[in-house]
Write a structure and sequence with these properties.
Oligomer: homodimer
CATH class of the largest domain in chain A: Alpha Beta
Helix content of chain A: 40-55%
Strand order of the largest sheet of chain A: 2-8-7-6-5-3-4
CATH topology of the largest domain in chain A: Aspartate Aminotransferase, domain 2
Radius of gyration of chain A: 21 Å
CATH superfamily of the largest domain in chain A: Type I PLP-dependent aspartate aminotransferase-like (Major domain)
Number of helices of chain A: 13
Shape of chain A: globular
Distance between the termini of chain A: 50 Å
Largest interface: A-B, 56 and 56 residues
Number of domains of chain A: 2
CATH architecture of the largest domain in chain A: 3-Layer(aba) Sandwich
């Protein structure tokens, strides 16, 4: 068998989540607890009734590709040819990494802490990957100088998840400008930016940066999973310059042929509706306000969430995050994700999601605060 | 960019199919023209209304995995742990090849003529692939001796598509027995068999062989695409020994995370219904009888279809299949796929699909016969 497959380990997140039981307060969830809007499904069903469910083109339904390109309206990326529809943002990122980087020569730079899948995808492809860690003293804020200092000779692409999982930090306009200026000042082949925008509709600051608006060598991955409570639909996309997208389509065609036609019709209805992609924004804003208040009251050290649906709290000095998460689920029946699941740089932190009903989130935060207090 | 992606060429099949126009008799189609059974969709909609559409486990919904394992009932592969649900059989085959073979040492042997995607997937993964061609003099019947003679020192897996695309040949029990005996008589690490069963429900002989019933080191890929006219649903699966499937699930998890929950519910309804996977079998049998009669009447040299929904006809000596396909679509408005799209060994042949309404298939065969006659 392929040795790169054999070496993949079971996810730490799943090990902790497996302890979930009756009555657990679940702050481990990585998906919305909201229900999706049934109108989108009704629209897709009418389509299937009228047309059956045939293959679309490899790159996706032309109308959907056009709708996505028009909605985001990134400079130089406004046509159907700038979009490839994928099986969720997971395949979007996988196809992007596999297409963009030559395993023989190139390196992927990953801005950390972040979701572990980028590094694991690269490893499965035999592509060199290296992390550049934001400063813990600055609550892991995106710092362009650090990112630029992390660029090595072989770096050909930099992946940034903003709003970030797990930190909840957002790339601000000022830092994005510094990063882009530094990249544009370089000579030789341009370095690509890969912007994972999966939490775009959960942003709680005003000056968030969209790299594709600022830098032509940007590739964006996203999906309707988080924005519309459609994680199980597996409908994502890649947006980028046509020269890249036409190659990404080839990779995608061999991996999965094309994306589910039903799911594409659901997405077409979302992008056809004015504000469809934003339909859950007000719910998230209300949750966010409640969570920030509960965290403030808890007197724990936490990272003020600027985006995504996570909040991170600092454990007492010397407490291992995996041990803490295990004690919390076993002794206090509250599920939180240990920071170490996002790499050593995030050891000592817990990631709490706040998509459960607000009273449960509040109760969970209380129990964690009580746990932390016992150490102080 | 990844040089292995850059070298992928546009599919010949798509080049010819792009010439389709108003009134074309389309014998190029690779998907059923039947409509799917709406009951399956109604069931999935009820599920979504009750539960939303959350992620399933990476390997798929447990009930669906159990239902698939039970339905096929392959020895040693009867549990959920023997099944991984995928984004169509395309991802099933991709994950299988990527998981099973070590690019550094292993070679994939492909029984040809066959669909070009196996070789292209291997090339994209940097895995050595070699074809072993069945005998044209024997109308490309599966021949175990030829397959065994094709095994090289580095061969670790053999892929067989039966019923076959494009030839319509089926692997018979006698040949399967010979192949399995030869593999079992070998010393050292076993060679794996990968059986692409995508046309399983379009079989028109009585002694077709299912390799997983005969040989423990078999991996099966399949989907509901062809059996239930659900090509656009992208719902497939891998069945195999647990030791392989647990690794395949890891590859699948990083590629696409999990398969569409809605599509999995559609499939659960199909496998829950008695005979659900066979619901279109009688339609295919009727089509098959009509096609065989039309081919017999045409007096062309054709391969009697034993399975799949293709029939292949021999072009006059010296006529290139790509030129013939282009002339047929341009001058006679009938679309057929040139044999060369399936490799040099199938040059001089045309593949006709027969999923269009029978009167159109008959008219298309007539036009092709008239074209062929002009050369004689």
């Amino acid at each position: 068998m392929n040795p790169r497959v054999l070496e993949i380990e079971t996810s730490l997140i799943r090990k902790v989540a497996a302890k979930r039981r009756e009555g657990t307060i679940d702050l481990g969830l990585g998906e919305p607890s909201l229900r999706p809007n049934p109108d989108h499904f009704a629209y897709a069903m009418r389509y299937i009734e009228a047309h059956g469910i045939r293959y679309t083109a490899n790159a996706g339904d032309l109308l959907l590709r056009e709708a996505i390109a028009r909605h985001y309206d990134y400079p130089g990326m406004t046509d159907a040819t700038n979009v490839c529809v994928t099986t969720g943002s997971q395949e979007a990122m996988y196809v992007t990494i596999k297409t963009l980087l030559d395993p023989a020569t190139d390196e992927l730079l990953i801005v950390e802490p972040t979701f572990p899948s980028y590094a694991k995808m690269a490893r499965l492809e035999g592509i060199a990957a290296r992390g550049v860690t934001m400063s813990e003293g600055d609550d892991f804020a995106f710092d362009a100088e650090r990112v630029v200092a992390g660029i090595g000779e072989r770096t050909r692409a930099i992946v940034i998840c903003s709003p970030n999982n797990p930190t909840g930090r957002v790339l601000h306009a000022g830092e994005a400008e510094k990063l882009v200026s530094a990249l544009e000042a370089r000579s030789g082949e341009p370095i690509w930016l890969i912007h994972d925008e999966i939490y775009r509709e959960q942003t709680f600051v005003e000056d968030e940066a969209f790299l594709a608006e600022r830098y032509p060598h940007t590739i964006v991955t996203n999906s309707v999973s988080k924005s519309n409570a459609l994680t199980g639909l597996r409908l994502g996309w890649i947006i980028g310059p046509e020269s890249f997208v036409e190659n990404a389509i080839k990779t995608h065609a061999w991996l999965t042929s094309c994306t589910d036609t039903f799911a594409q019709q659901v997405a077409l209805h979302i992008f056809g509706e004015l504000g469809g992609i934003n339909e859950h924004v007000s719910w998230y804003r209300a949750q966010w306000a409640g969570v920030v208040e509960a965290l403030e009251t808890s007197r724990m050290h936490y990272i003020r969430p600027e985006g995504s649906f996570y909040a991170c709290v600092r454990l007492p000095q010397g407490v291992k995050s995996y041990d803490a998460a295990m004690q919390l689920i076993e002794e206090r029946n509250v599920l939180a994700i240990p920071g170490v699941a996002f790499g050593d740089a995030f050891e000592g932190w817990l990631r709490l999601s706040w998509v459960a009903p607000l009273d449960q989130v509040r109760e969970g935060i209380k129990r964690i605060a009580a746990y932390v207090k016992e150490y102080v």
